[in-house]
């Protein structure tokens, strides 16, 4: 049975589209819709519902609010060990106030565009808006995949062009200047990021059970990385020395601390204020005195350092955790000094070729 049209009074029709059977109870699942008008109107609605069903689309089971879907989204993040704190923050402060009371069946592309406009008017970057809308899109897809379905059609939600990608990185002198100014407990974090290109969250979550000082390795376990894939980080001499010092400090003062990077025996969760103050003291500021360096600039720096050191790019991607070549190439930034070095190498190459050619021509003349 594809669907039904049931009379509910004069000019009222219950239209039911068959969606399939519950895999556990085997009960039939329907999408219901009340239509006011002629039977011909009801037939048109049923045809559209069946078309959407066959295309795999999603118009929502009536009366399910987006707020409910957002609750499911947060729970999904929690169950799967994802960044639930970030998800809850975005849902609570942005998505729920705007979409929470809207029925999922009433969500339209125009409403999504209104959200985009509202966020842009507040000066929010396109990349940030895209991350917020990705959560909204995910909540709808979770509703669509649930049994029985809570959502029948996911509307088109625009994705903005991200032309605000930062290209900052640390030159070695800048790194050393900031290292001098950071509080003692943050210096190891800076060094670890500088050499490995690891993300801030990956570093702050690092536990001693993941550190192998004997074999000079750090293992990032599945679920602790952004893409949920395990990685192995080799330790250069500076990093090995720093982690050995951290281990001695931990063993002598905070033997029960499981975190590699800590403040008075407790895990470090945030250091924005200390970072900004250290940037000011190190002179890493713009004309207005605002810090010019982000912690994420160290990720780009770590990638560039690996490539400049001659590490094969496939290996560098494994260390930094980049899955796509496009993003890796974006992080593998060329500096002015790189360009100068390239020009010098080209100049030397041409001079050598000319010298060789001149010697060759001289030899021909003598013969």
Overall morphology? elongated
Please report the number of helical segments.
14
Beta-sheet strand percentage?
A: 5-15%
Which spans have pLDDT < 50 for at least 5 consecutive residues? none
How does this structure look, described?
The chain is mostly helical and 367 residues long. Helices cover 52% and strands 10% of the residues. It has 14 helices and 8 strands. It has helices at residues 39-54, 66-79, 84-99, 109-121, 126-145, 172-181, 187-196, 200-204, 237-253, 272-282, 297-308, 313-320, 325-331, 336-366; strands at 3-7, 12-21, 28-36, 211-212, 217-220, 231-234, 262-263, 266-267. Strands 1-2-3 form a 3-stranded antiparallel sheet, with helices on one face. A 3-stranded antiparallel sheet has the order 4-5-6. The protein has a two-stranded antiparallel sheet with strand order 7-8. It starts with a strand and ends with a helix.
